[in-house]
Amino acid sequence: MKNKDYLKDIIEIKSIMNKSSRFISLSGLSGILAGIYALIGAFAANYLLTNYQVANSPVGLIPISYLEYFLLGIALLVLTLSVITAFIFSSKKAKKSGENLWDATSKRLLINFAIPLFTGGAFCIILYQYGLIGLIAPATLIFYGLACVNASKYTLGDIRYLGFLNIVIGLVSTQFIGYGLYFWAFGFGILHIIYGIVLYNKYDKI
Questions:
Q1: What does the DSSP 8-state code read for residue 201?
Q2: What is the SS3 assignment for 79?
Q3: Which candidate among 27, 38, 141, 186 keeps its CA 20 to 30 Å from the CA of 169?
C-alpha cells in the first residue's frame, strides 16, 4: 500500500515539475486551424502564380509589380491568423487548467522559438535580395523546423517531431526548385493538421 502511495507522490511531483518548466497549454485545435489557413493561402498563391504565368500579354490579369506584394500579403495574413488563433485557444486552455498564459516558461518558449524564426526571415530577405526566390520556400520550412526543435524543450515534446519533419521537407524541396509551394503547403498545411489532431487527441480531450 505504501509503495502505491510513493508511486502516486512521484507522479504528482513529476507533473508539478513539468508544469513549472514547460508550457503545456498549446492547443491541438489551433494547430489544425493553422494548417487549414496555410492550405488556403497556398491555394490562393498558386491561383495568382498560375494567372500570372498564363497572362504574359498586354491584358495580363496580374502585373508582375503587384504579384510579389499579393504573395507577401497572403503569407502575412496566414501568419497573423495562425498567431491569433494560437493565442485564443492557448488562453482558453490555460484558463481552464488554472495556469498563467504569460509567465517565465512561456517567455523562454517564445524567445527560443523566435530566434531561429527571425533569423530565417532575415535570411529569406537576403535570398530575395540576390534573386534566389526558389530557395525561399525551402528556407522557411527549414528555419521553422529549427524554431520548433529549439522551443520543444520548453513545451510539449511532440513539437520536436513536427520540427524535424519540416527540416527534412525543406531540405528535400531544395532539390525540386519550382515546386516549393507544394512542399510549403505540405509542411505548413498537411503536417500542421496531422500534428494538431495528434495533439488534440493526446492532450486536449478529456
A1: I
A2: helix
A3: 27
Sequence-distant (6+) residues with CB within 8 A of 189 are: 35, 36, 38, 39, 42
C-alpha cell at 158: 511532440
Q: What are the cell numbers at 6?
A: 510513493
Q: Please count the other Cβ atoms lying within 10 Å of the Cβ belonging to residue 4.
A: 8
Q: What is the pLDDT of residues 75-125, one digit of tens each?
A: 889 989 988 998 888 888 777 766 777 777 778 888 998 999 999 999 999
Q: Residue with C-alpha cell 519540416?
A: 166
CA 36 to chain centre: 12
Contact 187, 165 (CB under 8 A): yes
> Which three-class secondary structure state does DSSP give residue 23?
strand
pTM to 2 decimal places: 0.80
- C-alpha distances (whole Å) from 17 to each of 3, 13, 22, 73, 80 are 21, 6, 8, 42, 32
How sure is the predictor about 65, in pLDDT bands with cuts at 50, 70 and 90?
A: low
Give the residue extent of every domain in the chain.
Answer: 27-204
